[in-house]
Design a protein that fits this description.
Radius of gyration: 22 Å
Shape: globular
Number of helices: 9
CATH class of the largest domain: Alpha Beta
Bound molecules: 2-acetamido-2-deoxy-6-O-sulfo-beta-D-galactopyranose, calcium ion
Structural class: alpha/beta
Strand content: 15-25%
Oligomer: single chain
Number of domains: 3
Length: about 525
């Protein structure tokens, strides 16, 4: 069976090769008959902004290992997450489906049920169908179980039920309970005599909280984040028990790296898919002591350096195991940057001249471009010829594109086949894209961005980010005005009408209002 599949794959690659030889400019050969089915790795950052890497213009911080991917692969300058927050983007990258089609694809509490239907096609499921072995290491945040999870038994359905043969995850976010790792559905290191209880409604009797016991915290909360205290860090949600299973925040990055490396070593003999979802630079930023203070920019900068180092080590593992040239890496981030996301951690005070959003306007939670336009790189040593691409691409396109790569006919509902673009052989990206931020949507077509009118504050004060709300339509020409300074809605009504019409064709003309984020 494996041989048949491999032959099929090689045949597909030959077709691609022949298609690729059509024109003279297209010299890059994306595969030849000796190519084996490649391993595929998604390296997914949490809240890394468009301006957070030196390759994307950062001058105050140096990210040599991420930059090596950018310089050795295709660096996209119009690469998008589907959303300006985590859960919807993660839903979209795995399902190839716009997250606003699923009303539950919103920032989830740690007790939320799984929001991916177990019959839904996903990237790992599609790859399993092609003989791949599949794994996830890192942040999940797509819900677990089907309501009222008992954390002391196998927690299911979860990643293993939507396509991952192996899962080693943190359930939601680093700032949300339960603060434990979950291995294939089981809380790692749980002592059955010390069961875990989790609630997002009320505290458990006698348990300290960030609100009532600030003397027990080593990191102070700024907004939200004042429930249970774990390792001195006040979190979102209440948790009791499970002492032995609680993670060590400062060791989390090393812990996930070790799991990712182990996965590679154990699966290198067969084509594998690994979704390595790092937790940085999301809050709480808890760099390992060997990175603490190293950026001079406070913990946010320090954890970016830490993540960069992790990526370098991970790449070394691929090389040492002899599979670097047979592995396609897709590097990106789930949403744009935020500096203060709920803790006093010096990141604002020490930011200096660093601009996490780069030249873009807004940040996490925003319909302005910095909410969703993120670092986006495809890297495949020896196969992808390095270059920059301004093609419009979205993480949502990975499902169908990866399917084409491996010879599967599976497609995601909103996922375009941009394999040639991801391979650097074409710059013919998407024509249009619906973007989402906290249940609002906006539209990009060509170089134009349109944001419909929305009620609510223009700026979320707690995080100090302009989120794109305005009583009026907004229209920006991103080619001339990437910082979205000049609203051309009034001066170019024809373009505005065109974008509204195209947007509404996809989106309908309703929106669900703004998600209650406790953001004011
Ligand atoms: C918000 C949190 C924020 C972060 C975010 C999720 C508050 C006040 N803010 O609700 O700190 O956790 O959710 O981030 O609680 S994401 O990257 O996973 O989408
Ligand atoms: Ca995120």
């Amino acid at each position: 069976m494996e041989i048949i599949k491999r032959n099929l794959f090689q045949a597909t690659m030959m077709v691609l090769l022949l298609v690729g030889c059509k024109s003279k400019e297209e010299k890059v050969v994306i595969a030849d008959e000796t190519t084996k089915k490649p391993n595929i790795v998604f390296i997914y950052m949490d809240d890394l902004g468009y301006g957070d890497m030196s390759a994307y213009g950062a001058t105050e911080i140096s990210t040599p290992n991420m930059d090596a991917l950018a310089q050795g692969g295709i660096q996209f300058t119009n690469g998008y997450a589907s959303s300006a927050t985590c859960t919807p983007s993660r839903y979209a990258i795995l399902t190839g489906r716009y997250p606003w089609r699923n009303k539950d694809a919103k920032i989830l509490p740690g007790t939320a049920p799984l929001i991916i239907d177990t019959t839904q096609m996903t990237v790992p499921k599609m790859l399993q169908g092609e003989g791949y072995t599949t794994g996830i290491v890192g942040k999940w945040h797509l819900g677990l179980g089907s309501g009222n999870v008992n954390w002391n038994e196998r927690v299911s359905p979860g990643p293993n039920e939507v396509g991952f043969d192996y899962s080693y995850i943190l359930a939601a976010t680093q700032d949300r309970v339960p603060t434990v790792y979950i291995a294939d559905g089981y809380v790692d290191g749980l002592d059955p005599n010390d069961p875990i209880e989790v609630s997002y409604k009320e505290n458990f009797e006698g348990e300290p909280t960030g609100l009532d016991n600030p003397e027990l915290t080593t990191m102070k909360w700024h907004h939200g984040h004042n429930n249970s205290i774990v390792n001195g860090v006040p979190r979102i949600g209440y948790m009791k028990g499970g002492e032995a299973a609680k993670w060590s925040d400062v060791d989390m990055a090393d812990h996930f790296l070790a799991k990712a490396q182990q996965y590679v070593k154990e699966h290198k003999s067969k084509p594998f898919f690994l979704y390595y979802a790092l937790q940085q630079p999301h809050v709480p930023r808890t760099p390992h002591p060997r990175f603490a203070g190293k950026s001079g920019m406070g913990p946010r900068g320090d954890v970016i350096l830490e993540a960069d180092w992790m990526i370098g080590e991970f790449m070394k593992t691929l090389e040492d195991e002899g599979i670097l040239e047979n592995t396609l890496i897709v590097f990106s981030s789930d949403n744009g940057p935020v500096v203060n996301d709920g803790y006093y951690d010096d990141s604002v005070e020490k930011l200096g001249n660093h601009t996490p959003s780069g030249i873009l306007r807004g940040g996490k939670y925003s319909l302005f471009d910095a909410g969703t336009r993120v670092p986006f790189i495809t890297y495949w040593k020896g196969t992808i010829a390095p270059g920059k691409s301004d093609a419009l691409v979205c993480q949502i396109d990975l499902l169908t594109s990866m399917a084409t790569l491996v010879g599967s006919d599976k497609k995601g509902e909103d996922s375009e086949d941009l394999l040639e673009v991801f391979m650097g052989k074409s710059k013919d990206g998407r024509k249009e894209l619906v973007l989402e931020a906290t249940s609002r949507t906006a539209f990009r077509k060509g170089n134009w961005a349109m944001i419909p009118p929305y009620k609510g504050p223009a700026v979320i004060k707690s995080v100090n980010i302009e989120i794109g709300n305005s009583k009026e339509y907004q229209l920006y020409d991103l080619e001339k005005d990437p910082s979205q300074k000049a609203n051309l809605a009034k001066s170019n009504p024809e373009k505005l009408r065109e974008l509204i019409a195209d947007f509404e064709k996809i989106r309908g003309n309703s929106n669900n209002g703004i998600q209650d984020l406790e953001l004011k």
